[in-house]
Structures are given as C-alpha cells and as structure tokens.
Design a protein that fits this description.
Blueprint: H1 2-24, E1 28-40, E2 47-52, E3 61-64, E4 68-75, E5 83-86, E6 111-117, E7 123-129, E8 141-146, E9 160-169, H2 174-182, E10 192-195, E11 216-219, E12 224-231, E13 238-242, E14 247-252, E15 255-262, E16 265-267, E17 272-278, E18 287-293, E19 305-312, H3 334-341, E20 369-375, E21 379-381, E22 384-386, E23 392-394, H4 401-406, E24 427-429, E25 433-434, E26 440-447, E27 453-457, E28 462-469, E29 487-488, E30 490-493, E31 497-504, E32 509-515, H5 518-522, E33 526-531, H6 573-591
Parallel strand pairs: 1-4, 3-8, 9-12, 11-19, 20-26, 23-24, 25-33
Antiparallel strand pairs: 1-2, 4-6, 5-7, 7-8, 9-10, 12-17, 13-16, 13-18, 14-15, 14-17, 18-19, 21-22, 26-31, 27-30, 27-32, 28-29, 28-31, 32-33
Helix pairs in contact: 1-6
Amino acid sequence: MALRSKFLALFLIHICLLLSLCLAADPFVSYDFEVSYITASPLGVPQQVIAINGKFPGPTINVTTNNNVAINVKNKLDENLLMHWSGIQQRRSSWQDGVLGTNCPIPPKWNWTYQFQVKDQIGSFFYFPTLHMQRASGGFGSFVINNRAIIPIPFDTPHGDIVILIGDWYKRNHTALRKALDAGKDLGMPDGVLINGKGPYQYNTTLVPDGIDSETIEVQPGKTYRIRVHNVGTSTSLNFRIQNHNLLLAESEGSYTVQQNYTSLDIHVGQSYSFLVTMDQNASADYYIVASARFVNESQWKRVTGVAILHYTNSKGKAKGPLPEAPNDEFDKTFSMNQARSIRWNVSASGARPNPQGSFRYGSINVTDVYVLKNKPLVTINGKRRATLSGISFVNPTTPIRLADQFKVKGAYKLDFPETPLTGPPKMATSVINGTYRGFMEVILQNNDTKMHSYHLSGYAVFVVGMDYGEWTENSRGTYNKWDGIARSTVQAYPGAWTAILVSLDNVGVWNLRTENLDSWYLGQETYVRIVNPEETNKTELPIPDNALFCGELSKLQKPEDISFAVSTTGNRSKLLFMLLMAVCALMSVFG
C-alpha cells in the first residue's frame, strides 16, 4: 500500500507540474463555429442567410487582452470559406488572418482551427467571412476584447455591455449579388438596413409592412451602458442615433478616444465604435434606435433605414413621434468630415498596457515609404468591369502569397505595386506592396470615385492624420494632426477627397489592404503589404501552423486525412487539461 501511495504522489507531482506549465501562460479561450445556411426573413421575405451555430448574426467572441483564442470552424456551406477577424492584429502570425493572400480556403465539409493571441489589444471588433461576398448574406458577429483587471479604463465601469450590428441588406443572397456584378451590373439600392439581424420596427406602415421582426434592447433607467456599434454591411455608410439620448464616444477599434458627446455619428462600412449612453430620459415611452443611409437621395432611400427599440424596464408605452433626424447635408459632406476630424485619440489613457496611448509619438517619426493609392469609378479591363487601386485591379493568386514565400513558389505574385498611380491603361495583376520592416509608411487614400469608400489594413492600427477635399499634394502635410490622430484599422475616404494615414511596419507577415465596400472589393480593389524581417528569425514571425491547408501549386502537400484532423494540437489544450484532471480523479479513486 505504501508503494502505491508513493507512486500516486509522484504521479500527482508530475501532473501538477504539467498543469502549472500549461496554466502559467496566458489564458486559453476556445469556440466552435459551425457555418451553415438557414432560412430567415429579416425583411419579411424568406431568404437564405449564413448562420454561425444556427444563429444569425453569429455569437459574440468575448475575450481579454493577451488571451490565446482557438476557433474551430466547420464549413457546412456549399462553397469555400475563410473567416476574418477584422481589426485583430494577429501579431507575428498573418497565417491566421483569413484572407486569400495568406490562407488557402476551407473547403465544404472541412473544418479548420484558427489559433491566435489577442496580444496587447483591447476594444470593439467583428468577424466575417471574406470569400465570394458571403458577408452580404451574414456570417458576421462581434469580437470584444476586454481590459485586464490591472489596467484601468478611462471611464466608470458601465452597468452593461450591448452589441449592435448595423448594415445595409439585400433580399437577394450573396450568390445573386455576385452574379449581378459578374454580368457588369450594379447592385442597386439595398432593400433595407438590419439591426442585429432584424428588420425595422414598424414606425411607418407605408414604408414598413406587417410581419417584420424587429430588435428591442432593454435597459434599466438611470444606468450607463457601453454600446458597441459595428457597420457590417455591404457598401452603405450609416448614420447612427438614439432618440433623445446623447452618444458619448469612448473607443474605436481598439483605441480610447477623447470623450465627446454626439447626437448622431456616421459609421462607415467596416467601422466600429463604443459609446457610453446614460438612460436618463423619461420612461413614459420607448425610444427609437436608428441607422439610416448617408450621402444618398434621402427621399428615394427612405426604405434603407433600420429602426430598433430602446426599452426602459419601467417604460409606459411604445415609441412615438417621427424618427430622430439625420444630418441634413445630402449635398454638403463638410459636416460629416468635420465630425470625423473631431474623433481624436485619448493620449493620456492606458490602452492594453499601463503606459499611456500617447507614449508612441507617431508625429516625430521619419517616414520611410510613401504610397498614393487612387480610387476611380469602375473601369473595363479585357471586357470586364473591374475596380482598381492606382490603376491596378488585384487578381488573387492560386497559391497564397505567404505560402508561396514559405515554399519558394516562383511567379505567384510581383512586388511591384507602384508608389504613385499608373499613368497608362489600367491592368489586372497580382501586384503587392514591398513594405520595409520597421519602416514608417505614409499612405494617401485618394478617392476620385463618386461614392464613399472605407479602407482596411490588416495586421495594424493606422494613425488617421488628415483628410480633406480635392487632390492631395505634398503641401497637404501641413494640415496633418501629428499628436492625437485616432489609431484604428478602418478609415473612410470621402468622394472627391483624400485621407492620409501613417503606419509603423513592425508586424512581419503579408497584410491585406482593401476597400470594405464588398462590391468594389469583389471586383479587385485591394492589394497586400508584404513585411519581411531580413534576419528571418522566429522572434518576429511564428512558424507555419501544423494544420496549414495547401492549395494552388502546393496542393500536392495536402493530405486527405487532414480533412478531419485540421485542428491544431495546441488548440486542444483545454481538452487536454480536462482529460488529465479526469485521469487524476480516476487514479485517486483507485488508490484511495
């Protein structure tokens, strides 16, 4: 019996050591996503939408700074799938970014586990599928990164946290929309705006028919809530407002802002904001939550309005009166641009680390690379309508850029994206920006199109230092905000105007730079920024994942048995710990 006790003691010591090693690292959070089609009627007409675990929209991913996150995605669609975690910087690991430049797609009936750390990030983000315009049919959800307890937030802890997903919506699914674009047609006016996957409250019986399920958000009177709003739509900028309530802006895409009150705020496609909203109004009735189309003929686009209900727990009646008005500046976008300029970085607040956000003084760093990216209306190349950046319409490679580098596949792409727009005819090419590791890049987004665009750079938060109407020139740098320009991942460029951003190229990998407007993105308005450390050390980039998928020139490396085992070993760490604990319990019962 003594021998058994000694054996058990030694076994338990080894188990404890193993558990302590596992648990000493940053905490681990895992999710399972089953991506499938379901039938829903958000605008009163049954249609095919993309759901996560049978839900539309998908569940909120809720994690804390520096958590390790594993998301096992099972593709039950009838086409390839990639999931992208918009605004998550994927430090040292563009392998997990979920776009065609870095990942082979997940085929139908396959599963694949994304694994990454939300290193030194906080804030409000969202996820969505990146292929085939699938986001126009759903598959999106919120991604929240909370502060660690030891890092103070620059406001009192809110009573609650509320997610609101807004976006324009078509009754046609993404497949039909894609076919329209392939045929050289425009998508046309959306059929409405959804709020959390639901259609508008019937504020007007002419514009809103019977039988539409709308969203109601219940709150307690006198309490302050953090409301995270994401524009997950196809291509429409939306003005967000809550009847009779001020929106105190507090954070945008991982950066705390100077706190300012707005009665409404323009939220462009792909952008995210956090507001602090105090429920300080009379509870005689509910209140309207509104997201309506911007920079359009409002008399014709009245149907493109989302309406939800803010319901106090002691409310005595239904919402009443007209909807709160949007800014009346259809033909004058100066108001919106001035509003955008007013959004500034809170340089004294701590971000994900205890040091102030303003400790990184971007305005004093010398620029090493300058790229002027010009957007124009759609052009015709080889008989097809295409969207361009600087005269180039991007063609996705059959072998992802990062994989091509890893396995030295020649001819997959070219590092020849021009610093200034092409002067000749537009062309289709797999042309990539050659970024300088640890360089400091200035990018001018010159929007010479007639509609609003927003642009996203994966892997980074960029500093928004200036915007104005007309053509950018070198003299425009005199107007830059060199102190507290907001740091974010998605920035708008107004039609007939420019936006200037600065970015510190310290994250090795291949990173997608694209328009967030799904129609233009699908038609080629994107490129990639390739950042390589010449010393090729694993300290600046993680190795290729064990579960990497292969395609294109590397298809022969994909093993058939990987179909059901495309899951990272580390991704099952929580299950491993559980199994070890069960084994300990079993042994204790035997030897007890």
